[in-house]
Hints:
This protein has 289 residues and is α/β, with parallel strands linked by helices. It contains 11 helices and 9 strands. It has 2 domains: 11-91 and 176-282, Metal-dependent hydrolases (TIM Barrel), CATH 3.20.20.140; 100-165, DNA polymerase, domain 1 (Orthogonal Bundle), CATH 1.10.150.
Amino acid sequence: xxxxxxxxxxxxxxxxxxxxxxxxxxxxxxxxxxxxxxxxxxxxxxxxxxxxxxxxxxxxxxxxxxxxxxxxxxxxxxxxxxxxxxxxxxxxxxxxxxxxxxxxxxxxxxxxxxxxxxxxxxxxxxxxxxxxxxxxxxxxxxxxxxxxxxxxxxxxxxxxxxxxxxxxxxxxxxxxxxxxxxxxxxxxxxxxxxxxxxxxxxxxxxxxxxxxxxxxxxxxxxxxxxxxxxxxxxxxxxxxxxxxxxxxxxxxxxxxxxxxxxxxxxxxxxxxxxxxxxxxxxxxxxxxx
Length: 289
């Protein structure tokens, strides 16, 4: 509650992963947690996937929580892995659906090859075990790490990445590559707004000016791995360059080191400003549930 006006402050979390990618919670469980935290709006932003949005849009009203359609797309520039959040995307947009299906198939083949590489190194992991862990999700390295841990082939989740499937590790296989410009164009074509995820973690500030020219609409200022200094820096950067500000927990599971759903506390006012930006860019009001 605001100390002077007595008005109740509303909060949002616009960066949440579910079992549709590498999160461990179902969409419904995410809403239960969001309600516990008193959130007014959330966005399901699974990696290279929009399927969770259909469930979110159906159950949002049940929890009285506003839903912003979203996704998190991977791309690469100068050998750096970059993640772009797309908000207010039309989940029925044909070009977006086609590209995500292509990415899903590429993820499957990539994971299968990584398991083959592990087998070559003497790690007795079956691909079927990884598929069982991934379930309905877009398969990725965290599923391989979890499968290895479940089979007691490693001592910790971290060991899987450090020793076997991290960048430049023996079993690592590169992802299907898209450029940031291609991702921006895809999100914009699907009626959404492209936002650079966790810039303080990716540390590519020198590339942001070019991203803006290519269609980037904003930065994720509030993030569970951004300290107070990083938040101030990127908030000022957004003000200086007329970029939208967003924020979210980047929640994956209760056991991860990142913060839980609803942390950091992201004010609802940022979502209101994001809706205004959507109207400026696409000439339409935000469609939310």
